[in-house]
Write a structure and sequence with these properties.
four-stranded mixed sheet, five-stranded antiparallel sheet, 9 helices
Length: about 300
C-alpha cells in the first residue's frame, strides 16, 4: 500500500476514534468534521476498511457503521487526548468544533490567563525571544522585568511560564495571571546562559516511587486507581515541577508517612529524592533533611540516616 497522506491519516484516525469510543460512524460525521464532500467520506471509509478489514459492520436500517465484535483499534489513542475530545470536542478554536461529544463534567478553572497576555509569551517561547512585562509579585509592588521564557507549566491550579529572569539572573516560574502588558523584544539577543539548557532545576530529572498510603483502608483499590500491579507507581518528573505534581495529587512526602486524611491516598517511598528540588516545600509533609552536626563530621563517626544521598 502506498504511503497515506497525513491529512487522510487524520481522517482515518477519526473514523477509528468514533467507532472505538462512540460505537458508531456515519458518513455525515466525516463531512461535518472535515468539511469534505460525501464522495470523499466514502473513499475514506473504504480506505479504513481496507486497512482494518474486520473492524466494520454496516447497519443498513440506520445507514451507519458499527464496530464489529472483533474490533481492534487501528490507531493508538492517547488517554488525555481522548478525554479532551470527549469533554471539549475537536478543532482549533472554532466554536462549532468545541462542543463535547458526550455529557461530561469537568472542574471549573478558577485561574485562567488572559489571551492578550498568553499570546506574546507563547510567541516569545516559539521564536526564542525575550519579553518585557510588568509582574505582580506577592513579595512586593508591581515591577518591570525582562524574561526569557522557554516553557509553559500547568501546576494543576494555575499556569506558569518557566523563564530566565534578567532582574535576578535566575531561572524561575512566573504565574501567567500576574503578568501585565507583555511585549516581545524582537531585537534583544538571548544569551547562551539564558537558555533552558542552563536551567539546572529544569534539566534535573527526579525519579519518584509512589505507594498506596499505609493508613488507607483499601490499598487494593488505590493500586487499581493508579495502575500499580506491583504496588509501586514509578514516575519521572523535572525537579522544577516535582513539588507542583506532588501537591496536586496530595502525595504524603513526610519522612514517616504520618499525614492523615482521606485526601492522602499515596505516599512517597523516599522523600530524600526531593533534596535540592527548589519547590520541594510545596509537597505535602516534606521536611528538608537536617544539616549535619559537627559530631557527624568527626572521623569514624556514623553517618546520619537523614543525610542526602548526594552528599554521601
Amino acid at each position: 500500500m502506498p504511503p497515506i497522506p497525513r491529512a487522510q491519516l487524520e481522517r482515518l484516525s477519526y473514523i477509528d476514534f468514533r467507532l472505538y469510543f462512540l460505537g458508531e460512524l456515519r458518513r455525515s460525521d466525516l463531512v461535518a468534521r472535515f468539511g469534505m464532500g460525501p464522495a470523499g467520506a466514502t473513499r475514506d471509509i473504504a480506505q479504513y476498511r481496507e486497512a482494518a478489514p474486520g473492524n466494520l459492520d454496516f447497519d443498513g436500517t440506520r445507514k451507519l457503521y458499527l464496530p464489529s465484535a472483533t474490533f481492534r483499534p487501528l490507531f493508538e489513542h492517547a488517554p488525555q487526548r481522548v478525554l479532551s475530545a470527549l469533554s471539549q470536542g475537536f478543532g482549533q478554536g472554532a466554536a462549532e468544533d468545541l462542543s463535547p461529544l458526550l455529557r461530561c463534567e469537568i472542574p471549573t478553572a478558577l485561574s485562567r490567563p488572559r489571551m492578550d497576555v498568553l499570546a506574546p509569551v507563547t510567541r516569545a517561547i516559539h521564536c526564542g525571544k525575550a519579553v518585557r512585562l510588568v509582574y505582580h509579585s506577592l513579595s512586593g509592588p508591581p515591577g518591570e522585568r525582562e524574561l526569557v521564557p522557554f516553557a509553559l507549566v500547568d501546576s494543576g491550579v494555575r499556569w506558569h511560564v518557566r523563564a530566565f529572569d534578567r532582574k535576578s539572573a535566575e531561572f524561575r516560574d512566573f504565574v501567567l495571571t500576574r503578568i501585565e502588558s507583555p511585549m516581545v523584544l524582537a531585537d534583544s539577543a538571548v544569551g547562551p546562559r539564558e537558555s533552558a539548557e542552563h536551567d539546572v532545576q529544569w534539566s534535573r530529572i527526579v525519579e519518584l516511587e509512589l505507594l498506596p498510603h499505609p493508613s488507607h483502608p483499601r490499598p487494593d483499590v488505590i493500586r487499581r486507581d493508579y495502575d500499580m500491579p506491583d504496588g509501586v507507581l514509578r514516575i519521572r518528573v523535572r525537579a522544577a515541577n516535582a513539588g507542583y505534581m506532588l501537591r496536586r495529587w496530595n502525595v504524603d512526602c513526610s519522612p514517616d508517612l504520618s499525614l492523615r486524611g482521606p485526601e492522602y491516598a499515596l505516599g512517597l517511598r523516599d522523600p530524600l529524592v526531593l533534596y535540592g528540588a527548589a519547590n520541594a516545600l510545596l509537597a505535602p509533609g516534606y521536611r528538608p533533611p537536617a544539616p549535619a552536626t559537627p559530631a557527624d563530621k568527626l572521623p569514624g563517626s556514623r553517618q546520619r540516616d537523614d543525610t542526602p544521598a548526594s552528599s554521601r
